[in-house]
Structure prediction request, 409 residues.
Amino acid sequence: MHTIPLREAHRLPRWRQPMVLLFLMAVAMPLAFATWTALLNNFVIEVAGFDGQDIGWLHTVREVPGFLAVGVIALIIFIREQVLGLISLALLGVATALTAQFPSMGGILTITMLSSIGFHYFETVNQSLQLQFLKIERAPQMLGWLLAAGSASTLVAYGVIMLTWEAISLSYATVYWVSGGLCAAIALFCLVAFPRFEGEHRQNTRLVLRRRYWLYYALQFFAGARRQIFVVFAGFMMVERFGFDVHEVTALFLINLVANMIFAPLMGRLVGKWGERNALVFEYTGLVAVFSLYGGIYWFGWGVVLASALYVIDHLFFALALALKTYFQKIADPADIAPTAAVAFTINHIAAVFLPALLGYLWVISPGAVFTLAAGIACGSLCLALLIPRHPAPGNETRFSAALPLPAE
Prediction:
């Protein structure tokens, strides 16, 4: 497949342009990953008999490839980022399709590791490609639309699950085969149909750690720890404490999807208008409240309606995380985008490797304490977000930085 510079991509037919590729990838990934997530808690409890400790270990194994995402830097020496991303997306789809074929602890952990390699390497490359393909002035709005596209793709899948799970007795194997197969098919189509797009700046193919990016690294670490608690335990709570069935969990996901389709583009415009600091401060303030109320469900016995509402609100706040991407886009050397995306993913997953297993044991003793800890982590994120300047730029990465020309590195 031939290579085309980004500046010449507008000459291609509209369906072969970079934005279409980004949208197709945004649609494909959730078909596999979001469907896997929606069925996971019911699958492991009903089929494999998992408890809180087991689910903690599962997610620890799932996050190991995220911790090793820095390996992308070595791979892009030999493989173009775009090709690596699509191969990783195909691996995610194939592994998802095979999930129900291994209904034991060892089998689930093995297939989860493979799907996680695909997911995390795809997400690392996808973030890099988005920031390279999108112009800074339009990035927040376009990232919001990409998020909405991903939500729309899974809306159909979840709607089918909710309406047909009991009506025609769908099996876990059928749903995993269809969702994973579609993801893999889209990835292979993109691999064949699109030229290789070449950005204006050749990406560094060595490990990049710059002192001036320290605030971005710290925000990534806290974001990874906080998000991991939600991903592992919020959905698990709905099944374990409130007895949600597959179609009920899926209905909750459907509400999230519709909300994201409506609000994600609006949040993109909000980031463009408010700036990254105000958007992230708003997100983290809301998350402190959400996690505190989650804890109250266990400490004070609050009910399922509040838990369901918090689950939806939580997802809406996480949509504002696109502000973290555009913050880095504004402060970064353009050649640092790919290696720093890999480093950031590794930093994001440091806590993810050990937190699920450790908190799985805490969950058995006191589930409310898990969410109280998450509220504390969200407070840490809030304090860091206050250090972002109103107008981030190279040389003005934090409120402590002087807005001076950036020295050569």
Q: What stands out?
A: The CA atoms of residues 160 and 250 lie 10 Å apart. The longest helix spans residues 18-46. The beta strands are 3-5, 196-198.
